[in-house]
Amino acid sequence: MPEPVIASISASQNGPYLVAGNVPLYRRRAVNSEHGEPLTWDTKAQLDTKDRYALCRCGGSSRKPFCDGTHARNDFTANDTTTGTYAERSVVLGGTGITVRDDRSICEHAGFCGSRVTSVWDLVPDTEESAVRAQAISMIERCPSGALTYQVDGADVEPFFPQAIAAIDDGPLWVTGRVPVTDSNGARLEPRNRVTLCRCGTSANKPLCDGSHRAAGFSDH
Length: 221
Description:
Mean pLDDT: 96
Helix content: 10-25%
Radius of gyration: 18 Å
Order of helices and strands: EEEEEHEEHHEEEEEEH
Number of helices: 4
Largest sheet: 5 strands, mixed
Strand order of the largest sheet: 4-3-10-11-13
Distance between the termini: 40 Å
Number of strands: 13
Low-confidence stretches: none
């Protein structure tokens, strides 16, 4: 019996993400309030996949989220540039009972970090109050990119996520469960519990998403 293939994602040179290891693939969307505030995540569907499959990252496929070879016709150039670790890139926002950190370079602008009345940044100074601390934690744990994280007693605390990939409506690929990601230069990215990968083709921080899909008008829902 052949050995099972370990889950992995490899960004090909100027081409798609090559997924191995039978990683499940979903479509997810943010559920918004009547004021346009994201409240929670809705899993719309699980897509049929094989043990290995290719996902578009040039933004031009007609079979999104899957690759259809369009990258070869639209002269897609990846220029993968992500460097460093989260600890090196992030800044400490502070907190009482928790320590909140933030890496703006990988924010995908999902919007769960704020509402009409407050935001994680507004809440951090008042986290000595447990109810405020819990609200900040709830917001941070819904951040798909892991741009916002928190620590308790100096140790990272993360929600449980299985190994999976989710194509967010009109947004990036949300990778969870520490699936290993390798860029097109062969460099292994820091394994993380949650990370978002560019699939609009315009991020300046490829293969990671930097929120550029909004300005680019990327749409696939």
